[in-house]
From TrEMBL:
<keyword id="KW-0472">Membrane</keyword>
<dbReference type="InterPro" id="IPR037294">
    <property type="entry name" value="ABC_BtuC-like"/>
</dbReference>
<protein>
    <submittedName>
        <fullName>Ferric enterobactin transport system permease protein FepD</fullName>
    </submittedName>
</protein>
<dbReference type="GO" id="GO:0033214">
    <property type="term" value="P:siderophore-iron import into cell"/>
</dbReference>
<dbReference type="GO" id="GO:0005886">
    <property type="term" value="C:plasma membrane"/>
</dbReference>
<keyword id="KW-0812">Transmembrane</keyword>
<feature type="transmembrane region" description="Helical">
    <location>
        <begin position="25"/>
        <end position="46"/>
    </location>
</feature>
<feature type="transmembrane region" description="Helical">
    <location>
        <begin position="213"/>
        <end position="233"/>
    </location>
</feature>
<feature type="transmembrane region" description="Helical">
    <location>
        <begin position="108"/>
        <end position="129"/>
    </location>
</feature>
<feature type="transmembrane region" description="Helical">
    <location>
        <begin position="79"/>
        <end position="96"/>
    </location>
</feature>
<feature type="transmembrane region" description="Helical">
    <location>
        <begin position="322"/>
        <end position="341"/>
    </location>
</feature>
<keyword id="KW-1003">Cell membrane</keyword>
<feature type="transmembrane region" description="Helical">
    <location>
        <begin position="135"/>
        <end position="154"/>
    </location>
</feature>
<keyword id="KW-0813">Transport</keyword>
<comment type="similarity">
    <text>Belongs to the binding-protein-dependent transport system permease family. FecCD subfamily.</text>
</comment>
<dbReference type="GO" id="GO:0022857">
    <property type="term" value="F:transmembrane transporter activity"/>
</dbReference>
<keyword id="KW-1133">Transmembrane helix</keyword>
Length: 348
C-alpha cells in the first residue's frame, strides 16, 4: 500500500456539507435576530437626549411625562409602523414580481403607490378627508385603479405583459398620478397643508392612531398572500403550463392584485408613497434564498421591515433635522435599480 493510499485511508471524512434547507433556516434565524435588534434600537434612537436607563424605564411605564410621551407615544408606534409598512411593501413587491414574472416590478415603479397617493389627494381636496381612516379607503381604491390600468395597458399587443412594457407603463402612469395629485394640492392650500407630510413618505409624527388603523389590513394581506405561494410557483412556469397544471391563472392574478392593492393602500395611507422597497426586498431575498416562493414571499415579509426600520434609523440620525424615510429609501433604491438593469442587460 502506498503512502498516499494509507494517508487517504486514515484521513477522517470531511464534515458534511449543510443542506440548503439548514442554511436557509440559519439565515432565517439571523434575519429575525437582525429585525429584533433594529426594532429595539428604534426605541432608543431618535430626537431627545435620553439615557438608556430612562428609555428602558419609559418602556416599562415609568418616568416623567415628557419621557413617556416621546418614547411610548412616538418612538414605539413609529418603529412598529415601520415594521408593518415594510412587511406590506416587501410582500407586495414579491407578489407583483411573481404575477408579472418581472424581476423589476415594484408597487412604486408600476405606479400603484402613486395611484394610492392620487386618490388620497382627491379625498382631501374633493371630500375634505383629514383622517388616516378616511385616507385608507381612498388609497386602496387608487392603488387598485393604478394596478388595473398599468396591467391592462401594459399587456396589450402581441408580446403581452412583457417586463419592459409594464415598467414603462407603470412609470408613465405613476408620473401622471403624482403630477395630477401634486397639482390638486397646489390649487388648494388647505389640502396642501393636510397632505404635504404624506407626499414624500415619512414616519415622523405618526402614532398609535395609524398603527391601530392599518395593522389589521396589512396583517391579513400578508397572511392571505401565503395562500398564493403554490400558485405563484406555478405561474413562474408560464401561463400555458400553469393552466395545464390546473392553476386558475386569471383568478390567481386577480387575487394577487387585490392583495397588493390592500397592502399598498394601507401602507400609503399610513406614511405616504414609499418607492423602491418593493423592488429591493424581493431581489435581496432572491439572492439569499433563491426564486422559490415558499421562501421568497415569507422572507420578504421579514426583510421588508429590516429595510424600512433601518432606513428610518438613518433618517433620524443622518442629519440634525430628521429626513423623510421615503427620501432615504430613494437614495438607497435608485442605485439598486440601476445595478439590476445593468445586470439584466449584461445577461441578455
Amino acid at each position: 500500500m502506498s503512502v498516499d493510499t494509507a494517508e487517504t485511508a486514515t484521513r477522517p471524512d470531511p464534515p458534511p456539507i449543510p443542506s440548503r434547507r439548514a442554511s436557509h433556516l440559519v439565515m432565517l434565524v439571523t434575519l429575525v435576530g437582525v429585525l429584533a435588534a433594529l426594532i429595539l434600537l428604534g426605541f432608543f434612537v431618535g430626537s431627545g437626549s435620553f439615557s438608556i436607563s430612562e428609555v428602558w424605564h419609559a418602556l416599562l411605564g415609568q418616568g416623567d411625562a415628557t419621557t413617556l410621551e416621546v418614547i411610548r407615544n412616538n418612538r414605539v408606534p413609529r418603529t412598529l409602523l415601520a415594521v408593518l409598512v415594510g412587511a406590506a411593501l416587501g410582500a407586495a413587491g414579491a407578489i407583483m414580481q411573481s404575477l408579472t414574472r418581472n424581476p423589476l416590478a415594484d408597487p412604486g415603479i408600476l405606479g400603484v403607490n402613486s395611484g394610492a397617493y392620487f386618490a388620497m389627494v382627491v379625498g382631501a381636496v374633493v371630500f375634505g378627508i383629514t383622517t388616516t381612516s378616511g385616507y385608507l379607503w381612498f388609497a386602496m381604491a387608487g392603488a387598485f385603479l393604478a394596478a388595473t390600468i398599468v396591467y391592462f395597458v401594459g399587456s396589450r399587443g402581441v408580446s403581452g405583459a412583457s417586463p419592459e412594457k409594464l415598467v414603462l407603463t407603470g412609470v408613465a402612469a405613476g408620473s401622471i398620478f403624482s403630477g395630477v395629485g401634486f397639482g390638486l394640492t397646489m390649487i388648494d392650500p388647505k389640502s396642501f397643508d393636510t397632505i404635504r407630510s404624506w407626499q414624500v413618505g415619512t414616519l415622523d409624527g405618526r402614532g398609535w392612531e395609524e398603527v391601530t388603523i392599518v395593522w389589521l389590513p396589512i396583517c391579513l394581506g400578508c397572511l392571505v398572500s401565503m395562500l398564493l405561494i403554490p400558485y405563484l410557483n406555478g405561474l413562474a412556469l408560464g401561463d400555458d403550463r400553469a393552466r395545464s397544471l390546473g392553476i386558475p391563472v386569471g383568478r390567481v392574478r386577480a387575487a394577487g392584485f387585490v392583495i397588493v392593492t390592500v397592502l399598498c393602500g394601507a401602507a400609503t395611507a399610513a406614511i405616504g408613497p414609499i418607492t423602491f422597497v418593493g423592488l429591493m426586498v424581493p431581489q435581496t431575498v432572491r439572492l439569499l434564498f433563491g426564486p422559490d416562493n415558499r421562501w421568497l414571499l415569507p422572507m420578504s415579509v421579514i426583510v421588508g421591515p429590516i429595510v424600512l426600520v433601518g432606513s428610518d434609523l438613518l433618517a433620524r440620525v443622518i442629519t440634525p433635522s430628521e429626513l423623510p424615510v421615503g427620501m432615504v429609501t430613494a437614495f438607497i433604491g435608485a442605485p439598486v435599480l440601476i445595478a439590476l438593469v445593468r445586470r439584466k442587460g449584461a445577461e441578455t
